[in-house]
Amino acid sequence: MHDLLDMTKNPVTFAIPFFVASILLELAALKWLDHDDNVTGYALKDARTSVLMGLGSLVTSLTLKVASFFVFLWLYDPLALLHLPTDTWWSWLLMVTMVDLAYYWQHRFVHRARVGWAAHQAHHSSQYMNFATALRQKWNPWFDFFFWLPLPILGVAPWAIYFAFGINLIYQFFVHTETIRKLPRPIELVFNTPSHHRVHHGSDPEYLDKNYAGILIVWDRMFGTFQPERQRPTYGLTHQVDTYNLLRLQYGDYVDLWRDVRAAAGWRDRLGYLFRPPGWRPGGPSRPAAGALGEAARR
Hints:
Layout: H1 2-5, H2 11-32, H3 44-79, H4 89-112, H5 114-120, H6 131-134, H7 143-148, H8 150-153, H9 158-173, H10 185-190, H11 194-200, H12 218-223, H13 246-263, H14 267-275
Helix pairs in contact: 2-9, 4-5, 4-9, 5-13, 13-14
């Protein structure tokens, strides 16, 4: 637990100076280098909101770590099929890959179940695509816990789960940019790239619910959720929210969800509101039209 709470043993801590340097470098590139005139660039209020949301997420993610650590430890000690070593390169490669796969399914869930989307939509609420947007993190990371549960049973030490996820977060920071167009084809084939992740942040119908990858885009290719970037995306929610209020951005969708659940006619509809895709309504199609994503943002 001491190591878990020690910020100097969190890889994200050491990445912070590189995050700041990357934002400054991106700002300089947008100002002085030739680039596509269609890039969204930066807006001060938007970037400030993203940074504040990132700072808030440090508190909530630490809370999740503390709350889940003992559960993972309880599963790891008596139930693990084996204990993967933490002092070899191959075991770390394996653990980072396992965490990345768990992230893919967690990320897919929070897009496809409204109770998850209520938490995750805050990250997609910006209409800008830049390194600051990468810091626009949710304050409700609780669903991570459920998708990490198999990892200690499969032999990943609890502290290594958090360390590997820190590596995942650091990698994802660098795919939030419009200043990098396409990388060499072998990289685009295997890894998540800025081009792939721009698609994920797009609100265009053909881009919705695509490219959930953290590090490896191969998961999207394997499980049928891959979409190449064909034109510049329209960023943000399908129905944009014009606010910089942190509480509304983080918890506004929960309020709307609670109202719908409370007004539902029965448990079937209540569960539908919770676990069906965003925009679902009783009597409607099981999978709403693409434009229904972000339905709660209309209100």
